[in-house]
Amino acid sequence: MLSELQKFLTEHKRVSLADLKLHFRMDGEPLREMLNRLIRKGRVRKMEDGKKCGGCHSCADDAIEFYEWVNS
C-alpha cells in the first residue's frame, strides 16, 4: 500500500488528503500514518496549512490539507 501511495504522489506531485481518500477508498488517519512515514524518510512534505477563504465555510479540512512529493 505504501508503494502505491508513493507511486500516486510521484505521478501527481501535489495532492490533497481528500483526493487520496477518494482514490484509495480509505479513511484519513491510516493515510496520514503512511504519509508521516514518507515525511520522515524525506520523500514527502506536508504543505503549509491551507486557509479557508472565509466565504461559504463548506471546505472540509481534508480538502485543504495538501502533501507534495519531494524525492526525485
Give an overview in words.
- The protein is of the alpha+beta class and 72 residues long.
- The chain has a single domain (1-69), classed as Winged helix-like DNA-binding domain superfamily/Winged helix DNA-binding domain (Arc Repressor Mutant, subunit A, Orthogonal Bundle).
- Helix content is 44%, strand content 14%.
- The chain contains three helices and three strands, in the order H-E-H-H-E-E.
- It has a three-stranded antiparallel β-sheet.
Keywords:
Arc Repressor Mutant, subunit A; globular; 3-stranded antiparallel sheet; 72 residues; 44% helix; 3 helices; alpha+beta
State the shape: globular
How many domain modules?
1
Find the CATH topology: Arc Repressor Mutant, subunit A
Total DSSP helices: 3
Task: Indicate the low-confidence ranges by residue numbers.
Answer: none
Task: Give the class from helix and strand content and strand pairing.
Answer: alpha+beta
Spatial arrangement of strands, main beta sheet: 1-3-2
CATH architecture descriptor text: Orthogonal Bundle
By CATH, the superfamily comes out as: Winged helix-like DNA-binding domain superfamily/Winged helix DNA-binding domain
According to CATH, what is the class?
Answer: Mainly Alpha
DSSP summary, beta strand count = 3
Run of helices and strands: HEHHEE
- Intertermini distance: 20 Å
Tell me the Rg in angstroms. Answer: 12 Å
Report on the biggest sheet: 3 strands, antiparallel
On the 0 to 100 scale, the average pLDDT is 86
Question: What is the helix fraction of residues, given as a range?
Answer: 40-55%
Strand portion, in percent? Answer: 5-15%
